[in-house]
Amino acid sequence: MFWYCWNQALGPWNMIGGFIMMIFGLLFLALIIYIAFQLLAKNNGITKLSITKSPEDLLKERYAKGEISKEKYEEMLHDLRK
Q1: Integer Cα distance of 45 and 41 in angstroms
Q2: Both ends of the chain: CA-CA distance in Å?
Q3: Contact at 8 Å (CB) between 80 and 54?
Q4: b/e map 16-27, b = 16+ CB within 10 Å
Q5: pTM for the model
Q6: CA distances to 20, 45, 58, 59, 63 from 53, in Å
Q7: Residue of 48 and 24 predicted with greater confidence
Q8: Which of 61, 31, 65, 66 is nearest to 77 (CA)?
Q9: 19-42 pLDDT per residue, tens
Q10: How many CA atoms lie within 13 A of 78 on its CB side?
């Protein structure tokens, strides 16, 4: 009997409160998913940056920029391929 009276006393607020809690729950879940995607995107960016060019490619770039001579390039390339 008490529960019947208590439930009737709340009336429509009982349903509205449940609806509001459902909205907050969905917003919280959306926030968690958003944060997870942001962290994954950031980690993928770091991973992509950490994958560097091969040593031979770096050596070719240095030779193309004129940082090393042809003899030094060939010597270093020979050492890399050993």
Answers
A1: 6
A2: 89
A3: no
A4: eeeeeeeeeeee
A5: 0.42
A6: 53, 16, 6, 10, 15
A7: 24
A8: 61
A9: 888 999 999 999 999 998 888 877
A10: 6
62 near 37, Cβ under 8 Å?
no
Tokens encoding 54: 């091969």
From the centroid of its chain, how far is CA 4?
50
Is the separation of the CB atoms in 68 and 76 below 8 Å? yes
User: Is the CB of residue 7 less than 8 Å from the CB of residue 14?
Assistant: yes
Going from the C-alpha of 46 to that of each of 37, 41, 51, 52, the distances in angstroms are 14, 9, 9, 11
Give me the half-sphere count of Cα atoms (radius 13 Å) on the Cβ side of residue 19.
5
